[in-house]
Amino acid sequence: MFQLNDKVAIVTGSSRGIGAAIAQTLARQGAKVVINHRNSPAEAESVAMVIQAAGGEALVVQADVSQSNEAQALIKATLDKFGQIDILVNNAGVTRDTMIMTMKEADWDLVLQTNLTSAYHCSKAAIRPMLKKRQGRIINITSVVGLAGQAGQSNYAASKAGLIGLTKSLAREIGSRNITVNAVAPGFIPTAMTETLPKTTLEAVISNTPLGRLGSVEDVAHAVLFLASDEAAFITGQVLSVDGGLVMQ
User: Does domain 8-240 have CATH number 3.40.50.720?
Assistant: First the structure.
């Protein structure tokens, strides 16, 4: 089950953290994977080397997918190398946390552009080759913050909530062409993005999580693998929370 042989997957923002885990998990199941980064070439090459050492195939492409021309260049590089795109995982993301009264407009713009507009650019560019094949999987990495909100993260929450709206709308637009669009909403996962959170915040999260622990990048990657697989062919427009039950609280 969940085999991705002969599939080509793009994972944006996959030089580390959740994105790297997704890329490696898809590769282990047989997918050829495009590792995308904005400015982390050494880390991206390291992810590719892990995939290649295990017998997989990976291509590293530098692109700032918040910019339309660079997102298009990412899709073109993938098609030039592999001739097709079967799976797109929109994972690129940043945070610039502060209360809205002190939030700079530049930080609002950066987070929305990186987290949400990049998914628009990449999806728009990738859909055309998917339409030709009449098959595809688009998976957007949102967040429980996009479902429940979080003080001090209005920009991040808005971008992640926007991804949910994009997911549901796009699923309606292209479902007739056998292209599914779903989202995965991680809870609090230990990564470089969350390592600056105060210890008291993490303790509060754990105490409010029914499973009583933080998640792992592998927890998220396995959910993405399922949605990318043929076994999930009749699932679209959905948001799968991978949060240990946190959003029930």
Answer: yes
User: Using CA atoms, how far apart are residues 3 and 12, in angstroms rounded to an integer?
Assistant: 21
Distance, CA of 23 to CA of 56 (rounded, Å): 11
Do 33 and 11 form a contact (C-beta atoms < 8 A)?
A: yes
Q: Which residues are catalytic, by number?
A: 156
Sign, Cα dihedral of 196, 199, 205, 206: positive
Dihedrals phi, psi of 130, to nearest 5 degrees = -65, -40
Per-residue DSSP letters for 132-147?
Answer: HHT-EEEEEE--HHHH
- pLDDT tens profile 63-114: 999 999 999 999 999 999 999 999 999 999 999 999 999 999 999 999 999 9
User: Which sequence spans correspond to the domains of the chain?
Assistant: 8-240
SS3 of 7, please? coil
Q: Judging by beta carbons within 10 Å of its beta carbon (0-12, 13-18, 19+), is residue 22 exposed, middle or buried?
A: buried
Give me the pLDDT at residue 102, please. 98
pTM: 0.95
Please write the tens of the pLDDT for every residue from 114-151.
999 999 999 999 999 999 999 999 999 999 999 999 89
Q: Sign of torsion, CA 41 140 7 128?
A: negative
d(CA 57, CA 32): 5
Rg of the Cα trace of the chain?
Answer: 17
| Residue 101, both tokens | 């009264």
